[in-house]
């Protein structure tokens, strides 16, 4: 029968350490000594050690009496050992056996003993110091070869007692009983069982490209395949001396067959209801919490000016143009009446005509209105004011409106929130990892986790071929991503270690290097020159909103270059029209003069003929 005290002390850690240390903080009579036949399947050895000047054995005698009464049919061996000063201690022992079993026994051997420790008040006391504590333990284990060794101590034990014992060859599991100081118990447990996990196995879903290798803190030492999760796990494994086993491709039966499991740890796990239930029941412990965002961007063409000739003729508001059209209609009527010699009944409209001509031409040619003022002292200031008003209207309003209409960039109207995005019926790509065949000039949206979306956005900006418009940050979908693990003795240490990595900036550095590597891998495909420029930028403090964006754009669809070309085209058209009119007038005048000359010649010939006819008649 295997004793039940293994369950009380092991915490599922028995298989992971070569020499695990068990600690009982309460008195032994409350744990197992008063249990009837607790050591029924064992063979007990009692070793009572005494120094040359101290015969106090109350603890070992109390344990002996209790176990003897509760385990009447268990084989028992008692040794009384007297230690003297020096490296080797002389001892004598008395032996008592009960129920001697014939042949080789298969019972579990359990040894109870006390340690002899003296205080060192001077250098002379060191000469009389008995055998060292770990040597006392090793002597007992070599003599009895137990499976479990229970030690009664009433002093603050030092960690090196156990460490020196563990460094020697012994299969016995050491159990310290009756430690009176809780701080000493905690310190001893942390020293032995949390600072060196003896190569235990930690389960995780993460996959390792370079298991056990520590990541560097610069681009030159940060491998292309390294990730923040892998680097963090490697640091943890080196700090506490344990290894990892990936459970992604393993079945539950295969996981159960793994020996020496000390826990489980996961990173970048969405905080869902199942995980919350594990935390509430105490099965899991959250190490860190981060907020992740699912964001979207709009990929569209770069903004362009109106670049339309209509801007020259339609720069003002509709109301002004309706009034202008009505005035032009009235002016046309006046001109028609004047051309046909009809009575002048439109003196008021003629004043409006002069006003509009002066307004549109930017010149004070409305002298007819000013001349109607009889007083010259009033007419001259009015003429100056009229000129200034016409100049301001023409130069600042009309010409300014034309220029702004032709040159001001009009950004595309895109949705800013998720509701507007859904209502727009725009194409939405739900991941940035998808590869689209061919190219498209259409506007579309990309939705993904922010850290993956940033890579795609930066890549488009580096190429400079499409415009990327980000949405309102307040409209992003946010969720909690946690790092958690199985709650056990090592969980507080892992939690504190991860918190320290975050506080001193190591995790932030790993995140930066991971993003930089992903960008570099993408930019390598864009050419060596672009790759070198981007590497230089990553290693400097230079910041720029748009990376390597050039003014030239091959996807502008041959749009017009600006308002000056329109002005030049309009002036050229006017000059060409004027030249045509000039040539037409010259040709018309030449034809007209030729006709008149021909007619004059014919008239002269007619006159000559008439004169000749008269002479003949006479």
UniProtKB/TrEMBL annotation:
Keyword check for Signal: yes
GO CC annotation terms, alphabetical: plasma membrane
UniProt signal peptide: 1-25
Transmembrane segments: 563-584
Principal location class: membrane
Topology in the lipid bilayer: Multi-pass membrane protein
Subcellular location: Cell membrane
Keywords per UniProt: Cell membrane, Glycoprotein, Membrane, Receptor, Signal, Transmembrane, Transmembrane helix
PANTHER family found in the cross-reference section: IONOTROPIC RECEPTOR 20A-RELATED, IONOTROPIC RECEPTOR 60A
Name of protein: Uncharacterized protein
Source organism (scientific name): Folsomia candida (Springtail)
